[in-house]
């Protein structure tokens, strides 16, 4: 393991004026700022709050707890902090299925090449050195959010979330397992998010946050998408009528099934 150097004392040279709000394209997201320097933390919170919902923590331990509780879209963290370093915070967030999807930006006065590499290897999506430019940080945040939206759009356009190439192996395995469970249970009209949570061994809030973040859809929507995709395959086999297929994929009301199917695929099931 790389033995990183202690973070030097550094003047951040914070601008006297805040960044104008109209310099940033509005994008809804929650940002968690983790930094033990009150001045830096307050500066980040003040500027980011113009565009995002912002939470803040004064050390890595508090930051980890808040990330687990609030499921932010991005964590912006200092490196050298009390209780837990930013490197360790990255490791802890990345190794847990409940938080592995959260993007992380490290902002540190440790500027040497090995420190930056260590941060990226720890799981950070980006690494900025102090003193930093607020406009650049905001651009990096927007890039991460746009990339995540691309994943969500892929899920919507493909109608099949398992086709998405997730960056994190933990996220990939989570979605594969989720999709397998739903496929196996899709014929059961009583199968719900509660049953999915039991199978995954996770809390309802954790499952909802994870799936919503990765796909842009809630668990109930994903269950419906899987059922409809199964229905389409059955209809294409021309071995069953619409009513039979509806019951086979867990819809107790054929009329409601037809409505959902047309909304999903743009064509009535009896036209397949």
Please describe the topology of this protein:
Blueprint: E1 30-34, H1 38-48, E2 53-57, H2 60-70, E3 74-77, H3 86-95, E4 103-108, H4 113-121, E5 126-129, H5 134-158, H6 169-185, H7 193-200, H8 204-215, H9 219-236, H10 242-248, H11 254-265
Parallel strand pairs: 1-2, 1-3, 3-4, 4-5
Helix pairs in contact: 2-3, 9-11
Strand content: 5-15%
Taken together, the total number of domains comes to: 2
| Reported CATH architecture of the largest domain | 3-Layer(aba) Sandwich
Shape: elongated
Biggest β-sheet description: 5 strands, parallel
* Mean pLDDT value: 87
Supply Rg. 22 Å
Query: Can you give the helix content as a percent range?
Result: 40-55%
Structural class determined from secondary elements: alpha/beta
Q: In CATH, what is the class of the largest domain?
A: Alpha Beta
Query: What is the straight-line distance between the termini?
Result: 58 Å
Order of helices and strands: EHEHEHEHEHHHHHHH
Q: Give the neighbour order of strands across the main sheet.
A: 2-1-3-4-5
| CATH topology term of the largest domain | Rossmann fold
Q: List low-pLDDT spans.
A: 1-5
Mind telling me the CATH superfamily name of the largest domain?
A: Response regulator
Number of strands: 5
